[in-house]
Amino acid sequence: MxxxxxxxxxxxxxxxxxxxxxxxxxxPEKVVGIVGQDTILPCTIxxxxxxxxxxxxxxxxxxxxxxxIYTYRHFGGEPMQKYCGRTSVPGDGFATGNVSLTxxxxxxxxxxxxICSVESSVWFAENxxxxxxxxxxxxxxxxxxxxxxxxxxxxxxxxxxxxxxxQWVTEDGQGLSVDTEIHxxxxxxxxxxxRVTVTGEEMGKVTYQILNPLVQVEKKTxxxxxxxxxxxxxxxxxxxxxxxxLFLLTLAAAAAxxxxxxxxxxxxxxxxxxxxxxxxxxxxxxxxxxxxxxFQNMQESTERDLLMIRTDLENKxxxxxxxxxxxxxxxxxxxxxxxxxxxxxNLQQILHNMQMSTQRDLQLLRTELENKQxxxxxxxxxxxxxxxxxxxHPRLEISADGQKVKDTGVIRQVPSNEKRFDSHLFVxxxxxxxxxxxxxxxxxxxxxxxxxxIARESVTRKGPxxxxxxxxxxxxxxxxxxxxxxxxxxxxxxxxxxxxxETQSVEETAAASLRPPSWTSWN
Length: 523
Description:
Family: Belongs to the SKINT family. Belongs to the immunoglobulin superfamily. BTN/MOG family.
CATH architecture of the largest domain: Sandwich
Number of strands: 29
Radius of gyration: 34 Å
CATH topology of the largest domain: Jelly Rolls
Helix content: 25-40%
Number of helices: 4
Subcellular location: Membrane
Pfam families: C2-set_3, PRY, SPRY, V-set
Number of domains: 4
Oligomer: single chain
Strand order of the largest sheet: 22-1-23-24-25-26
Keywords: Disulfide bond, Glycoprotein, Immunoglobulin domain, Membrane, Signal, Transmembrane, Transmembrane helix
CATH class of the largest domain: Mainly Beta
Strand content: 25-35%
Membrane topology: Single-pass type I membrane protein
CATH superfamily of the largest domain: SPRY domain
């Protein structure tokens, strides 16, 4: 009969430490960095005596995802590859107690919680700082063209973080009704496009204001308007501008629907969602083509009318004042038509960008759904784990329910038996298996070294042993808080994704729990 395999939990040592060896780590609760600039994450070590073999680990936690940033020892610093050239710690950090992390060229992706973890040969302490990133951009105002009986102004700005607030005001401080679009790019920076229509009643200075709410930085730009800024619109254009404006509103509404659907149906994405989004984009494309054709027809008709007027005046009156008026009329119409043509080209570019963005969003949603389906499949094999106190090393204390194990730091008086490990801090579970697929969740707290796996029931329990399949152990683990390994005859590095789900105090790191996980490892 095939030998049964058992769950194995190996724990790192936690020695009893005199109070005199303790030290303290302090850092501010919050720090704000500016996009493109350098920022410092302060961290100070307070100790009554020099630390023995000290190490500093800077760790970043974002949305539950943990990554090492920088490791600092007496002989120098070692940034992780992703942060090479962007991070540093003072060279005399251990002598001065200043082990602050300098982060160069701050980017929105740098936002998160940073842990300054300090350990010596006999003690461990840490503190954390939340880094928020702020960004501001330049502001550009422009005249868009006539809008009914008024004039449309537009203002663009990009590079803002977090989402800014926008306002248009008149010279006397009155707010205007505006149409504002705010989008976030792949770098998480916000771009703003805001429009307002002013009439002759708002003549004077019109000011555009944009505010960063995190750092309270405001930027503004103004435009002075006089009666000459409100040109008379040619008689044939108001209807077209009305249709054009309605189309812009339709396009904006359609874009909002696409964004809304993309965000709210993430959990239920399917082929039907993809088909519906593609259908919406196709309809928008057809509407733009229809509008372009209408514009071209109107342009041809206008040119024919102007040619007839010019010919008639030249034949009957010559180049009189009426002829000059015709030239002015023609110039005004041509200017209006050029503005419409330019905006149609912009609409085509907007549609293309929407199509590309939607396709990217669909791919991300598909990937997320596949990951969730895979996780759900794995969790279907989840099994219960109850630790067997009769197998635990004498330093390990098992809870009454068999769900937790704690390293007491001392050899306890426990019954001697053949099942108990006597040289390594190992413990087996009571459950065993002969075949099938199995899945467990294990909380290891903040331990930087641990191993978890299965073992044959007949493995050696006494004396030195090595975790490897040849000795009846199939285990994986974390070494020094950095790398995951499969404990083969020659260790095999694993490409694993570690997620830290909860924070525990230093005192709690003495125990490992088999309740919902603090770390979950996936290949």
